[in-house]
Design goal:
This protein is an alpha/beta fold and 286 residues long. The chain contains 11 helices and 12 strands. The strands form 3 sheets. The chain has a 6-stranded parallel β-sheet.
Length: 286
């Protein structure tokens, strides 16, 4: 489970983003906008969704200019409606313009992830299934993207390659050359991993699921498995391991997958395909 993102962590991420956007300054604003001009800006939501990243947006404005006053009107995880103002920024207009795009990029992207996650969470409401993310994230933004999943009501899968054993098809392919099968791979991982480390294995058939369960896997991932076969594995497992459905999960089929009785449903689309929530900055002059 991913820990909360610390202030230092997202300060570093924001600093890198600003270095990218302001590498050569803001020639337009510096040429046209008087440095002493003051104003107020409203951050406006233009589509219904779930908010995530408000503190990250605040950090952007404050790194650009510590004198800017940022007042959040909504918290991460809040459901927002089209037309809602989620924050007010006051101070130098030039500073607001320099920070605007980077702040909105973070806020729109993270809110899009939270919004998409909430849709999946709502779709499986009333079942025991938990919606989780994957490692299909934008390099450098994983901590924030996984935070946004939590803001949308989902849970986090592995943070990185050291966060639990996950034996996938390519691992098994590599082991096959030396005569090591699925069950032996699980046992080998169990012997070599730290005591508290969970061992998960990806399977594509009921036969493989039976082998993984017999070998003592903690979690069995049912990869691109038909619902009829998921039902067979749930009956076979009888609670001996957590069952995770993955691969080909959409809003159209997620509820039928959840109703099989699986414990987890991992959805890569939460982070790699979520549509950004439309949010803008509306400027007013004093």
């Amino acid at each position: 489970m991913v820990r909360a993102v610390s202030r230092e962590q997202f300060r570093r991420i924001v600093s890198q983003a600003l270095a990218e956007d302001l590498a050569f300054g803001d020639v337009t604003t510096e040429a046209l906008v008087p440095s002493e001009l003051k104003g107020k800006a409203s951050i406006l939501v233009k589509r219904d969704g779930v908010l995530a990243g408000i503190d990250v947006a605040k950090e952007v404005f404050q790194q650009v200019d510590h004198s800017l006053r940022f007042r959040a009107l909504a918290k991460d995880g809040a459901k927002v409606r089209k037309g809602d103002v989620v924050a007010i920024v006051e101070g130098k207009v030039a500073s607001m313009l320099k920070a605007e795009r980077t702040a909105l990029n973070f806020l729109q992207h993270l809110s899009g992830i939270a919004t998409e996650t909430a849709r999946y969470v709502d779709a499986v409401s009333g079942t025991k299934a938990v919606i989780t993310d994957t490692r299909k994230t934008i390099p450098g933004l994983r901590l924030l993207e996984k935070y946004a999943v939590r803001a949308g009501g989902g849970r986090n899968h592995r943070l990185n390659l050291g966060d639990g054993v996950l034996i996938k098809d390519n691992h098994l392919m590599a082991l096959r050359a030396s005569g090591v099968g699925l069950g032996d791979a699980v046992k080998k991982a169990r012997r070599r991993a730290l005591r508290a480390t969970k061992v998960e294995v990806e399977v594509e058939s009921v036969k493989q699921a039976r082998e993984a369960l017999s070998a003592g896997a903690d979690i069995v991932m049912l990869d691109n498995m038909k619902v009829t076969n998921m039902l067979k594995v749930v009956k076979l497992a009888q609670g001996r391991a957590l069952l995770e459905a993955s691969g080909g999960i959409t809003l159209d089929n997620v509820r039928s997958v959840a109703k099989t009785g699986v414990d987890l449903i991992s959805v890569g689309a939460l982070t790699h395909s979520a549509k950004a929530l439309d949010i803008s900055l509306e400027l007013e002059l004093e």
